Amino acid sequence: MTEIVLTTFDWVPEAPRGYVRDLRVRCALEEAKLPYSGKTTPFRARSEEHLACQPFAQVPWITNGATSIFESGAILLYLGGLSATLMPIEPAKRINVIEWLFAALNSVEMPSVPWSLFKFTNDETDTPGRRALDGFLNARLERMENVLKHREWLAESFSIADIAMSDVMRLVDRFDGVAEFPAIRAYVERATARPSFAKAYADQVAHFAARD
Amino acid sequence: MTEIVLTTFDWVPEAPRGYVRDLRVRCALEEAKLPYSGKTTPFRARSEEHLACQPFAQVPWITNGATSIFESGAILLYLGGLSATLMPIEPAKRINVIEWLFAALNSVEMPSVPWSLFKFTNDETDTPGRRALDGFLNARLERMENVLKHREWLAESFSIADIAMSDVMRLVDRFDGVAEFPAIRAYVERATARPSFAKAYADQVAHFAARD
What we know:
Oligomer: homodimer
Order of helices and strands of chain A: EHEHEEHHHHHH
């Protein structure tokens, strides 16, 4: 049997530590207890070899034998196919997990990461575009609050969709953006209380700190 | 055999016409020559029935017999599984299509739609957050330009990944954001020259105009 190899940066600055996208993949691997090893690619000097594996010069990507996959969403879906712990096998249940995975990455993260850029840069300038962006994120959070009031996890049980959605919400929470959404905050707390998250988070932080 | 039913709004204002997300689903259905019929949900009064099918009160969703799917990315993936015209069957090729599908929806559309909100509102205020957002989009476009210089379609042949990516880029092009990226512009032109796009676009525009 081949072994999964996860590639991330050799080092990143302090600010993104604990938020680099390999975290989502680590969570899935820990949750499913899939053995894996780590490799690194330089953060400062991004090479042609890096681009060949990840066309945006980002991380992570994984390999499993001859298979190489970039985009954390695609990696989560692939790992979901390897473990019923991450994604059920029954087609209707699988579709439900997949639609929520896309919801996290396309409907919610589309406003949340750009919104976080304004927060990161301490930019509170009130402009029409900014109001539109804040309104976009708020509309998504209101709907998610409504959804999460009535369920523990997005699908029937914890899945790759929750790994993605809770991590998306965790960044919003970092900038106090879920203060008015108690069900979202409780969901983030439930997800980050899982041993798989604790291990993945500690591993990522230790990995980047070791190269300081 | 069950029939696919695509639900979109009954009407939308002029501005988003030709850009509502059911377009991507229509493109896939036309490309694969999958028969389908249309249903509508009110744009102005969004009901509990609507939320039960699409938790963000957005469109589209599809049904196929007892299966109901929201998120256009999840729908594209589902339709890809129904037709080798949209997604190859061989696992390695399928992974390649799926990673590019996520790239379109998570890596590129994440900055492009928020960027378009600033364009829509004619907001050109130069602030730190705005510079970060513009830089984020530009970094993605530069990498995509590099990718598209060397290939006709993202994977080995036209696929659901191209339906998503070309539509993401089409919105950027609407606000003249790909002027400096000739390979991206040529890619959008190739994709929108396909009969499936022409039919899907005309159908969407006619659908919304019919309810004016």
